[in-house]
Amino acid sequence: MDGHGAASAAAHVDETRGEVDDGVVADALAGLCAARKTLPAKLFYDPEGCRLFGLITGLPEYYVTRTERALLETVAPEVAADVAQGAVLVEYGASDETKALLLLDATPRFSAYVPIDVAGPELTLLAARMAGSHPHLAVHPVTADFLAPLSLPDAVTARPRLGFFPGSTIGNLDPAAARAFLREVRETLGRGARFLVGADLRKDPARLVPAYDDAQGVTAAFNRNVLHRLNREAGADFEPDAFAHRAVWNDALGRIEMHLVSERAQEVRLGGRLIRFAAGETIHTENSYKHTVDGLQALAADAGWTGLRVWTDPDGLFSIHLFGESTQHQEPAP
Ligand code: AVJ
Fold first, then answer.
1. Residue 39 and residue 31: Cα distance in Å, rounded?
2. Cα 231 from Cα 238, distance rounded (Å)
3. Is the shortest distance between the CB of 65 and ligand 1 below 6 Å?
4. What are phi and psi of 150, to 5 degrees?
5. How many whole angstroms separate alpha carbon 186 and alpha carbon 300?
6. CB of 56 closer than 6 A to ligand 1?
7. CB of 117 within 8 A of CB of 7?
């Protein structure tokens, strides 16, 4: 789910541990050997992490998913009304088709759906479900890290294109990375494309923090799962219960940060290295930036997009932005 970052194909077989992904180990080691320890957020989404994220989306404190879903029910028919005959829907980070279906089922004019995600097996299942339920729609799954440059399948490049990036996944990117991503998408989708982006909004930290630190401890388990994952896949010897879950609002940077706080001085082995933790030292595991409507519009404008429309829910919690590509054709000088 929401997988992004390098999908490393490199793997070696370890006699005692089975399949070990060298990319996972390398990414984790680089972050844990830095002066301020970090782990990449993409590490969250192994099968157990995807299961826990699914539970998060149903938590009373986590308003994000249900608010976006309700808003999309209004937005989808309005966006679909302007979709050109034969258009292609290109979804960035398509863990499943449920949000895309709100658009696809709102008009018969879509001819194709291109779900992009790092999770190949999930995409194969998605394509099989779509073949059964939507036999007239061409589905072209692309297994790729959507943050890296990618090219669209040849079959769809000549058709009108609508990009779709729901879920507020854009919040995981710092502003420079978000700008670079938005520019990359504009180049991939090309002239005349449109791009529909869902983004959680800045709000009272008293509402934000519990969404990332719920009473049932599901988000804490989701956070600690990265340590269990490194134990499972990389032969590390973390004691996950010796790390506390912490979610903090960083007002200066406009983001929720998730950390794992070492509850005591301890040492951990990973990939032949010894990593030392002081008591209270943290591993920074995720950023979730919360933009204002104008802030996200400015980022997109910097990336060359034109803001066409913005929708927000009645409580002002979440936003959906429709951007357009409107490169002027440069006439050669006379
Ligand atoms: C999937 C990145 C949108 O930032 O709200 C949920 C991930 N982390 N709870 C978010 C997440 C902790 C989520 N995104």
1. 5
2. 6
3. no
4. -140, 160
5. 10
6. yes
7. no
